[in-house]
Amino acid sequence: MLTKRIIPCLDVKEGRVVKGVQFLELQDAGDPVELAGYYDQEGADELVFLDISASHEGRETMIDVVREVAGTLAIPFTVGGGINTVEDMKRVLRAGADKVSVNTAAVLRPELIAEGAGYFGSQCIVLAVDAKFDSTLDSWRIYTHGGRKATEWEVTDWVKEAVRLGAGEILLTSMDQDGAKTGYDLALTQRVSGAVSVPVIASGGAGAKEDFTAVFQQAGADAALAASIFHYKETSIGEVKAYLQESGVEVR
After folding, report:
1. How far is 50 from 82, CA to CA, in rounded Å?
2. pLDDT, tens digit (0-9, with 9 covering 90-100), for 156-168
3. Could you tell me the pTM of the whole model?
């Protein structure tokens, strides 16, 4: 059985790490280069860097910041935000990223997933999914542009199509739970984990170390991503991993 991964996330806007609730009310959380170095020392298994306003603002990812962050890391590093073409992927990977995350651009043009997987391999292509519960669908709908635009895609239909096209991993964010610190959306995570054969990273809602145990043991996540509770030192990666081990969850 593969060990479970703990992944801090740097949501970056205008060169600073920010954190909000349900994608709104963003607060400053620090310098991305300093935080990346801190998490590398703390025992994070990977790091995710998301330029959260790049797609909405119609610009490319902050390559200089990516390069600086990559220079501090010895762990795998995923970068997303504003990646629209294979050329954008090349720039990010050359700057030091190990994987690229695509979201809005992939929904608008799904062939981008196949192009990236064909060029770099599926292991490099992470599909980021922003999902919000829709009571009329009785399921979750996909949103793009940093959670601003609803699409017609139902979550399991979209992740299955993305994996068919070559996505090697799913970064699944519950918009309903994002920043709420009341736990991961277990029903959503379980739905997606059961629908695809690739690893699923659960995101949105971590508020305590118990939440990590729940998303691994009850919802089948392969990795858990968190931001606020690590940025503001409410708990540490070491504490979370120790608790998981005590709970019978294999961690790195």
Report:
1. 9
2. 999 999 999 999 9
3. 0.92
